[in-house]
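Lab meeting notes turned into a lecture example. A postdoc, R.K., suggested we walk through two folding results consecutively so the class can see how the record format repeats. The first protein's sequence and structure tokens come next.
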Amino acid sequence: MTRPSYSCALPPTADVVDKAQLAERLGYRRVWLFDSPALHGDVWAALARIAIATDRIGLATGVAVPNLRHPMVTASAIATTCELAPDRLISAFGTGYTARHALGQKPVPWDDTARYVRQVRALLDGDIVEIDGRPCQMMHLPGFAPPRPINVPLWVAADGPKGLAAARDLDAPGIVRTSLPTEDVGTECALLRFGTVLRPGEDHTSPRVLEAAGPGYASIVHAVWQNAGAAVDALPGGTSWRTALEAERPERERHLAVHQGHLSRLTDRDRAVATAAGPALLRPGWTGDPAAIAARLDEAGAAGVTEAVYVPAGPDIPGELEAFAEAASH
């Protein structure tokens, strides 16, 4: 068994470069950036800024969403980032659960996602690709982009059977998951995990823990509401949470409010439901003392995870990054 390397996932914020530089100093393997344009800044602009300001840390989209950009736009963004940080980029793609719901749309179907990845791969290879009924090709002259082929690994976010089937069909060199694999995935595997490292004497009642672990818990509440509406009432504080949401926005606009702060910061509505969770606040994700976090890493390695991607949250991201890095080397 090999303990996974540790990386971090961050939203593209104005201060993301400072956080990425800290992650580099702390030994994080990669910094992954969210792609949710309704919630955060632009993922590619932020990656370019980090590429210029760092020396070694890997860069990744966590994860890029088809239909937000033409395949040529994504291929060109990949090419530009590669010029700034050669051999440091991977681009992972998914169906865009949160990013698409925040736009009032359903996630991109898997067939369309796989087609998009194939198109981007072919463009990076220098091939002619039919897109929207017309041939497309990267036509950059020398000096305008790296020469083709541009060998950037294209990963797939694959939790369920459809995603895993798409990853296998695409021969993806890596996959991104939010749960431990239950079978041999046969490739590199990054596991996204939220939570916080508990300090002595802390529990679910500690204000710092609430702010750091709460956004991860709230993301589950968001998903329950998104998938099953009133089923959220079965969660502690769920009825009050739903009532507050319904009072805040008319039905056709509720997607504009529910995902705010996704995996990053608590809204007042989310803080209330996270507080109502009681000890259950600590159960999702990875929350525990340093020894418990180290044990979770070992468990992940035994399940075939090669990279643990920590999603820090709350007002003190540098502190969260430092604590997780220390626990990961426990």
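The second example is placed directly after the first for contrast:
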Amino acid sequence: MQDLIRKQLAQSIETMTKVLNDEAIHTAVVEAGRITAEAMKSGKKLMVCGNGGSAADSQHLVAEFVSRLTIDRPALRAVALTTDSSILTAIGNDYSYDNVFERQVEALGLEGDVLLAISTSGNSKNCVKALKLAKKLGIHTVAYTGNKGGTMAELADINVIIPSDVTMNIQESHLALEHIYCMVVERYYFGADFGKKPQQLAE
């Protein structure tokens, strides 16, 4: 069992090391943060969607925006499209599970909003449909994926593609980069010195 633990941790670290050294990923996260902050400053919002573990990530990330990440600050406008069981089951029953996020984007999305779709495969049909509609509505689109980006990479304005095809390792990297994305949004929204202690400002 100890060998299993070491093997899995080593595999996780290997993926995270690739992410650490991938400038394209860093650039994409910064650009996504900048666009999201600008949208929020204009009164727009962030919408987030995903399935399974990526649904949990959607809710986790939105909680960081609406509550806080590390520093007290005003709430930031964000909504997870994964949380309302009545909406999800109604759309799934009346239409198809493939439409559960697309229909919510139609109802809630406004031009200038941001949609972040999370999928380890990059091929989740409901995320693909949501991205397609978002682009038609003039909504900025961001995709967090793995597996070389899948279909979603062709649709999103900004792609954060984890260099792995192992679901758990993609999810681990997604979560780290989702936290960083929130931090980037905070810096762009509140200013470069946001979150720094007084003694840090003097250095």
